[in-house]
Amino acid sequence: MPPPTSRSPKKAARPRKHAPGQGGDGSGSRAAEPDAEFRRLVRLDGLAVRRRRHDRGWSPRALVGAIEEASFNASGLRRTLTPNQIEAIEERAERISYEELLLLADGLDCDPSDLIAEGEMSSRRRGRTLH
After folding, report:
1. Among 39, 60, 81, 125, which residue carries the largest CB count within 10 Å?
2. What are the start-end ranges of the H helices in the chain?
3. Using CA atoms, how far apart are residues 23 and 21, in angstroms rounded to an integer?
4. What is the pLDDT of residues 76-125, one digit of tens each?
5. What residue ranges define each of the domains in the chain, with the CATH number in brackets?
6. Which of 62, 75, 46, 77 is nearest to 107 (CA)?
7. 68-86 b/e with 16+ CB inside 10 Å = b?
8. Exposure pattern of 34-64 as b/e (b: 16+ CB <10 Å)?
9. pTM of this prediction?
């Protein structure tokens, strides 16, 4: 019988725990993808936004209040856009994040796709045409 050793037997390797927000490869790519989608900027149809706001008889400030109320009812958080952001969307086709698009659509009580500019979410690649 061999003499006892002072070293303890090796334990089986346990799976490594990853920090919150990191994928199994440690790169963080899995958790980062949804965040990146929410931060992705989209161009809205400013006239569609203005038309829906006018149909309700709202000023930009009233729309801000409606967005805040819809956000609070949905999530318990008071998030909204500013009147300046709404003006920029309507008049200058300013791009906003997808998350802000969802807030705006909730405030106007419509589908987000109703507010996106034509061709903005096209799957076609942008580039030079041959003709």
Report:
1. 81
2. 29-39, 46-55, 60-75, 83-92, 98-108
3. 7
4. 999 999 999 999 999 998 999 999 999 999 999 999 999 998 766 544 44
5. 38-112 (1.10.260)
6. 62
7. bebbeeeeeeebbbeeebb
8. eeeeeeeebbbbbebbbebbeeeebebeebb
9. 0.64
